[in-house]
Automatic annotation (TrEMBL):
Protein name from the UniProt record: DUF2384 domain-containing protein
Pfam families associated with the record: Xre_MbcA_ParS_C
Domain (Antitoxin Xre/MbcA/ParS-like toxin-binding) ranges: 104-154
Length: 157
């Protein structure tokens, strides 16, 4: 994972960074085992909505569709009372990968708006794939992360 500029994240999110919304603590503070245990028990759906609340409705819907693997009705803004309160472990892992990519993209592009613009457009380096759509697969996540690291360190323009 790329080192994260916590000051940039705090300017965009306040004290609640994307990963902190899902699993409390400072970015990079948790061991892999602690993360595994949180993800195995399932991330609270309310915390996921909290992470996504800073984005516009269209982007939130796209991300939720990717994480849940099912389309969310347009008129559904929050989970219904009949919905499960926690994501399953697979959905939780994917949600955490999205949170990490959001943080990395913001660190690379400098603010949330530019990061979102990059995430939703096809990327030539990623063979025309849309970075947001790639994150739900661990290999796609790794390709996006690798590309963001290359941009951050000046390998790519």
């Amino acid at each position: 994972m790329l080192p994260i500029d916590v000051d940039v994240l705090r300017s965009e999110y306040g004290d609640r960074t994307p990963t902190n919304c899902l699993i409390p603590g400072e970015p990079g503070e948790h061991s892999c085992i602690v993360l595994y245990r949180h993800i195995r028990q399932g991330i609270n759906l309310k915390d996921l909505w909290g992470m996504l609340s800073v984005y516009d409705a269209s982007f939130r819907k796209q991300v939720m569709n990717c994480i849940l693997g099912v389309p969310i009705p347009i008129n559904q803004r929050r989970p219904s009372s009949k919905s499960p309160t926690r994501l399953n472990p697979q959905q939780s892992a994917v949600a955490y990968l999205y949170a990490e990519v959001f943080e990395q993209a913001i660190a690379v592009f400098g603010n949330r708006e530019l990061a979102v613009k990059w995430l939703v457009r096809p990327c030539r380096y990623l063979e025309g794939c849309v970075p947001l759509e790639m994150v739900c697969n661990v290999l796609g996540y790794q390709a996006v992360q690798h590309y963001l690291a290359g941009i951050r360190y000046g390998v790519y323009q």
